[in-house]
Amino acid sequence: MKIAYLVNTYPLPSQTFIRREILALERSGWTVQRFAMRSGRERLSDPADLAEDGRTEHLLKRGLPGLAKTALPFALRRPRAALAALRLALACGGRGAGGAPGTGGRLRHLVYWLEAAEVARRCHELRMPHIHAHFGTNSTTVAMLAAVIGGLGYSFTTHGPEEFDAVRAHSLAEKLQGADFAVAISAFGRSQLCRQARLEDWPRLHVIHCGIEPWRFAEPGPMPAGPRRLVAIGRLSEQKGFPLLIDAMAMVATALPGLHLTLIGEGELRPAIEARIAALGLGERVTLTGWLDEAGVRSELARSHALVLPSFAEGLPMVIMEAFASGRPAIASAIAGVPELVTPGTGWLVPAGDAAALAEAIRNFAAVPTEVLERMGRDARQAVLREHDIDTEASKLATLFRLSMAMPAPGEDAH
């Protein structure tokens, strides 16, 4: 039971869900070889992420000349397959935004082809017949090309929103057609795959949730005493909507003088967010922590009364699962897969991009008695433990791997 995993940049602080999935597969007896185009080591601080980086084979570590030295001889030994993959790469690379042709895209896809030849070579060397890619973007492009070159199977997990923002540029329809199967992390995500897949391919589209490790989340204690505290977690980027959250905090500042927000994360919008906090006089009401390791995030969740997620675009956020496992309800944008997890009993859903609606939800949260918040937190915890246990979800994925490779289930007679 051997399989290759392929990600573009891995590991990253925001990709703990991939690490959890791989470790769950390994606990169940799979051998997983991690491949990534590049390392994100300079952004890592969590010891578990650093250890995962050491277990990952980074294709571009040797540079393109070093990659070509081993990849090209393998490709030349399989000329028909390598040529078919090259044609596919150039066809996919000819699509820019909106499907418009672009020379730059073809050049990038030539690099993807080279990376794919190396992945195929290593899979043959390690006797790994199947590649699973995370994100339906360039990592799946490389997996698709490697499968053609090496005569391998491949599958991939889509998360959103990137894959669905530019489906033609990412050649999503071609990837779905060639894959043994494809996975979405929510029912909403699967619906977006259905839009790109042929009707006869719909049975090969599956929902497998990202998961948490329940044993890392002790039974939560009572809600903290004192004024209400919100926590927000995520990359400080345009899709997360954090500037909108700062505006909403300003709207409720007078009515809720004790309310405090802790914002965990880093990103390109940090200077603009800091400036907005200062301009609105919220310096004492909002704390920016930067990235924290998993223990630090759990500690901040324990100090809070609820998570707030004002995103403009999402898949199905891990931060909601982690907040729920910590016994905290959520205030979140009603987009993508979020309503599949956040319900009236576990939080508040608000229209994305509406600061006034977000402010009203914060007022409603602040007015709820502590015992009601605790009950919502208990219900949220039960929901996430039921639907997002990583060992359960990884076992579903393992079943698909076995079926795609025609392998017997553990304990079955292979003959």
UniProtKB/TrEMBL annotation:
Gene3D superfamilies: Glycogen Phosphorylase B. This is Glycosyltransferase.
